[in-house]
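Lecture notes, continued. The same structure-token format from the folding unit now serves as the input rather than the output. Read the line below as a description of shape only.
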């Protein structure tokens, strides 16, 4: 690829929980990498994906929602989001259309002011409000800080998403290609598979249980003839009562989670998958520094 007019850079997607960061990133790169659900704090880790075209290459860093941490896992998530600002060339700040600016947005505005990075404010979920309400919303957010641009989009409906990449290429520097053209993410397959299982659990379980679960891939082995990949995974929960809910009556819930996760993992691996799920209780693991690290949330890996 000719590099003389090639632009490249790293872009952080930040915002409070549940504003649609992962949905936006998946739609921008044209492939599902980050998991999504209606429950807040679905994204727990920094997820890196790559968008490449003739104009250049954008490396997106999807981050956990910035919120008030209540445990060690929450502290890790906020650190993962806020520390990303040290490593990027620009920021996409996602917000929702609303009638007032909340405390989380005020906090993020101060962070971004300190960072001095170019910021594009993206008002997402415009399909949820009437068109005539948008100008007042834009005006309200304009008072929060200096933005290179303010864009109104719907990630879910793929409305105006081309405006985001157009804006980013205007502000990113000329530079080399960081990843091959075919690269979509640098996330390990085991990690993506674990997240896909967690997504199906998030979507299937009630309100109380999902925040207290983690998923660990115990083994992932392709059979010698290449016909099948055997995966064994454990869903970690914090209470015996939660274990019962996850397993369900005669194993029905666990079977549902596995049967919904398997096709997506097969698509990811381009292989048939034999998926076995187990459930273990680790009491209050979200408040254990050791267990939080063991389950893949280690601050040292972010530095």
């Amino acid at each position: 690829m000719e590099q003389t007019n090639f632009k490249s850079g790293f872009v952080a997607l930040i915002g409070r929980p549940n504003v649609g960061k992962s949905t936006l990133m998946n739609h921008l790169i044209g492939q599902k990498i980050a998991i999504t659900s209606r429950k807040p704090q679905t994204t727990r880790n920094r997820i890196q994906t790559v968008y490449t075209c003739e104009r250049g290459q954008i490396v997106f860093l999807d981050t956990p929602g910035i919120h008030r941490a209540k445990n060690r896992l929450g502290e890790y998530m906020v650190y993962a989001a806020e520390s990303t600002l040290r490593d990027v060339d620009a920021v996409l700040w996602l917000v929702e259309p609303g009638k007032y600016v909340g405390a989380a947005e005020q906090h993020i505005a101060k962070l971004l002011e300190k960072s001095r990075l170019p910021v594009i404010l993206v008002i997402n979920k415009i399909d949820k409000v009437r068109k005539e309400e948008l100008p007042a919303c834009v005006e309200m957010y304009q008072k929060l800080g200096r933005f290179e641009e303010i864009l109104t989009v719907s990630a879910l409906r793929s409305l105006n998403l081309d405006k985001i990449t157009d804006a980013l290429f205007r502000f990113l520097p000329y530079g080399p290609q960081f990843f091959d053209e075919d690269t979509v993410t640098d996330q390990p397959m085991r990690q993506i598979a674990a997240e896909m299982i967690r997504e199906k659990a998030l979507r299937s379980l009630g309100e109380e249980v999902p925040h207290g679960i983690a998923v660990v891939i115990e083994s992932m082995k392709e059979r010698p003839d290449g016909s099948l990949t055997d995966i064994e995974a454990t869903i970690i929960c914090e209470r015996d009562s939660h274990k019962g809910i996850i397993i369900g009556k005669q194993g029905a819930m666990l079977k549902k989670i596995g049967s919904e996760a398997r096709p997506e993992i097969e698509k990811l691996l381009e292989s048939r998958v034999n998926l076995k799920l187990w459930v273990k209780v680790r009491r209050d693991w979200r408040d254990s520094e050791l267990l939080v690290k063991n389950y893949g949330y280690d601050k040292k890996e972010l530095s």
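Point for the exam: The two ends are 31 Å apart (CA to CA).
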